[in-house]
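Design a sequence for this backbone.
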């Protein structure tokens, strides 16, 4: 599997993402946000951090970077994309995923490991788990409150597009949503960090199944 990790000014999880992908066996390239085109890859990863200092709205300025035109074109061609934390915010700002990430309900930055319930195993990102499994991933965000209107929520539920939910909602997200899939199930946005849960020395390995499953799916595609 060939993967690209986009780097914005203020990204701070780009290396973590690259390490996780390489550990699973992927060939990874780092791509600067001012590049006009993406290399020929299977997966584009949009990492966490504070792109452009989170000015205006989290992810809003990054979504206007030249590389995001390439990201949109990649997804429209049927390519895969993974956005984590700030990357999830970027994916909603580009319109590649529905909803928006708002300020946490208690207005405080949250940094801890949380339990997630796997809501579906029907995607390349989640096929390494069973629906109903509980996994532990770190979160580190101030604007992780996933918000969507009633009609949009019903669509996500009816189409089985909620990937992960919080076992104990830390930020006020609608329906405890921690991650959602695109309509074609090839784009995943999530607030918790699976790339920070791949090494036992760092506190847990529950993220490994996501990257290994993704690699297996795309390698055999």
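Sequence:
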């Amino acid at each position: 599997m060939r993967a690209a990790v986009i780097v914005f000014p203020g990204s701070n999880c780009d290396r973590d993402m690259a390490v996780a992908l390489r550990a699973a066996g992927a060939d990874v390239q780092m791509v600067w946000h001012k590049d006009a085109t993406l290399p020929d890859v299977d997966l584009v990863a949009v990492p966490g951090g504070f792109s452009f200092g989170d000015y205006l709205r989290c992810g809003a300025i990054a979504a206007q970077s030249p590389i995001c035109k390439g990201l949109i074109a990649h997804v429209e061609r049927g390519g895969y994309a993974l956005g984590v934390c700030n990357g999830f915010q970027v994916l909603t700002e580009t319109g590649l995923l529905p909803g928006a990430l708002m300020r946490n309900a208690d207005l405080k930055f949250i940094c801890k490991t949380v339990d997630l319930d796997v809501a579906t195993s029907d995607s390349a990102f989640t096929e390494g788990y069973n629906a109903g499994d509980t996994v532990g991933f770190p979160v580190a965000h101030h604007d992780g409150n996933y918000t969507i209107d009633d009609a949009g929520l019903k669509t996500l539920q009816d189409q089985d597009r909620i990937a992960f939910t919080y076992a104990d909602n830390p930020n006020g997200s609608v329906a405890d949503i921690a991650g959602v899939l695109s309509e074609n199930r090839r784009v995943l946005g999530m607030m918790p960090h699976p790339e920070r849960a791949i090494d036992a020395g760092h506190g847990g390995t529950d993220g490994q199944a996501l990257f290994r499953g993704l690699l297996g799916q795309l390698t055999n595609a």
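The chain has a mean pLDDT of 96.
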